[in-house]
Write a structure and sequence with these properties.
Layout: E1 6-9, E2 18-24, H1 28-35, E3 36-38, E4 49-56, E5 63-72, E6 83-89, H2 93-102, E7 108-109, H3 114-121, H4 127-138, H5 142-152, H6 155-179, H7 183-219, E8 221-226, H8 233-241, E9 259-265, E10 268-274, H9 284-299, E11 302-308, H10 315-323, E12 328-334, H11 344-350, E13 356-358, H12 367-379, H13 394-415, H14 420-437, H15 444-451
Parallel strand pairs: 1-7, 8-10, 8-11, 11-12, 12-13
Antiparallel strand pairs: 1-2, 2-6, 3-4, 4-5, 5-6, 9-10
Helix pairs in contact: 4-5, 5-7, 6-7, 6-14, 7-13, 13-14
Bound molecules: ligand FFO, guanosine-5'-triphosphate and magnesium ion.
């Protein structure tokens, strides 16, 4: 395949120490050499070496920037093509000027994700690994990052390849029996098929079981802070965010809009929503806020229901408790520093003890208890999750489900004594679905769609 040479700025646009332009393709070294002026010609330097010099206009010899240039020769590079990286001074102007010069040297601007796409097309990584690179860039917590890194290194691919390998063996076994259909061998085959299917199903289910947690780790648990006005919801948001994100005043009805913040609690990422206190109100703006609070409540995975411990429960609050019956809820009794009036027995009648946390946000009491309650809710105490492969990509989940159904069908058919050449079709389908996860036999439009999610220069 003849690939043209591409270039892009691979660092974010903005002021920074340095900025990197990446060039990949057959002409990468020659193009860079025409605008680079240093001690040696880039065409003759050893691979994986760094060179100091200047970028100059090739005709006017006007200096554009002082740079370091890295040369990586094919196939020992990220794209498996010749790659040159130019480290310029940060900021907008230097990089832009250097890129413009390159684009005059038979180099074209790379599309988003095109470097990673080439790494895939040239066989360095498979599709699930390439998708993990997107997750890696977008990861918002340590755990999400670790999971993506593991997948980028090929942990999911290894599992999928093993599954497919076993299915190929099964198909080969069936093939032999189709070609030499002796009766006694066929009976053995049915047992062999159900056995292999059971094993494959177990493995697929195991992977699918990780999917929910994987999604949570990547996108965050949508967590709404709910309660009547002035109980300390915004104070809780600020405490968990460790900054003054939301306005806190003694005036009930301070928060009018939903405020979002991404926080990590014991390594669990939460998409935290501070909401307007829920109450009947004639204020138009506040009423819209209350409607939004109810929307947030409906959409949330987890509710942090806040009460003011120094007051008795109000009827609005009792109906809120009723509404939350089917939601994962943690109750926070706040303002523990004041004399307590709240009917704790009513709360205890509705929520298990480990879901009720006593706090004083004013005095920063009870934070560790809340963190523990959140963590135990989602990981039932098992906090170390490092060594597992997590499936978090919706495309992968859908394909695993399809493969599972196909193998289920094969299993049923084998049990019912269906002719083995028909069973073979189901197994083959499962094998193909699994193959799509790692990018075996996928269409060009899917590939384009996946890589277009990348940022420019990746
Ligand atoms: N400057 C820079 N940093 C980067 C990247 C890059 O492209 N450029 N990467 C891009 O995402 C990531 C690193 N990924 C990479 C993966 C493989 C190779 C590579 O050249 N591999 C060769 C050489 C190995 C060796 O010398 O031992 C190989 O495996 O053959 C480079 C980067 C993150 N950091
Ligand atoms: N004594 C005491 N006061 C607190 C505590 N937590 C918050 N407050 C105070 O309670 C008032 C209301 O706090 P906010 O965090 O704004 O309450 P809110 O629930 O967000 O209120 P709205 O946005 O109006 O619904 C402020 O004056 C806080 O300083 C606490 O633990 N003890
Ligand atoms: Mg508030």
């Amino acid at each position: 395949m003849i690939q043209d040479t591409i270039a892009a700025i691979s660092t974010p646009m903005g002021e920074g120490g340095i900025a990197v332009i990446r060039i990949s393709g057959d002409e990468a070294v020659a193009a860079a050499d025409r605008i680079f002026f240093g001690k040696s010609e880039l065409g003759v330097v050893p691979s994986h070496t760094v060179h100091y010099g200047f970028i100059k206009h090739p005709l006017t010899l006007e200096r554009v920037d002082e740079v370091l240039v890295t040369v990586m020769k094919a196939p020992k590079s990220f794209t498996m093509e010749d790659v040159v990286e130019i480290s310029c001074h940060g900021g907008f102007i230097s990089v832009k000027k250097v890129l413009d010069l390159l684009l005059e040297q038979q180099v074209r601007l790379a599309e988003p994700g095109e470097f990673t796409k080439r790494a895939y097309l040239n066989g360095r990584i498979d599709l699930s690994q390439a998708e993990a690179v997107i997750d890696l860039i977008r990861a918002k917590s340590d755990r999400a990052h670790r999971i993506a890194l593991k997948q980028a290194e090929g942990s999911l691919s290894t599992n999928i390849k093993l599954l497919r390998h076993n299915l190929v063996e099964l198909m080969a076994h069936i093939e032999v029996n189709i070609d030499y259909p002796e009766h006694d061998v066929e009976e053995m085959t049915n047992a062999f098929i159900t056995n292999s299917c059971t094993q494959a199903l177990g493995k697929i289910e195991q992977l699918l079981n990780t999917a929910n947690q994987g999604k949570i780790l990547r996108e965050g648990i949508v967590t709404a802070i709910i309660g009547k006005p002035n109980v300390g919801k915004s104070s809780l948001m600020n405490t968990l965010a460790q900054e003054n994100r939301a306005i806190v005043t003694e005036i009930p009805g301070t928060t009018r809009d939903v405020i979002e913040e991404f926080v990590t609690v014991n390594g669990i990422p939460l998409k935290l929503l501070d909401t307007a206190g829920i109450r009947e109100t004639s204020d138009i703006v506040e009423r819209i806020g209350v409607e939004k609070s109810k929307g947030a409540l409906a959409d949330a995975d987890l509710i942090l229901l806040v009460f003011n411990g120094s007051e008795k429960l109000e009827s609005d609050e009792l109906s809120l408790i009723e509404q939350l019956k089917d939601k994962q809820t943690i109750v926070i009794v706040n303002k523990l520093d004041l004399p307590q009036q709240i009917e704790n027995d009513i709360l205890a009648g509705h929520f298990p003890a480990e879901r009720i946390v006593m706090m004083s946000l004013l005095e920063q009491q009870g934070i560790a208890d809340l963190e523990k309650a959140i963590a135990s809710l989602f990981f039932s105490g098992q906090v170390e999750l490092n060594d597992q492969t997590y499936v978090s990509n919706v495309r992968h989940i859908a394909l695993l489900k399809k493969a599972k159904i196909a193998i289920d069908d094969a299993f049923e058919a084998a049990g019912a004594g269906v002719p083995i050449d028909l069973i073979q079709i189901d197994i083959r389908n499962a094998w193909e679905y699994l193959g799509e996860i790692i990018g075996d036999s996928v269409g060009e439009s899917l590939i384009d769609q996946i890589f277009s999610q990348f940022c420019l220069g990746k």
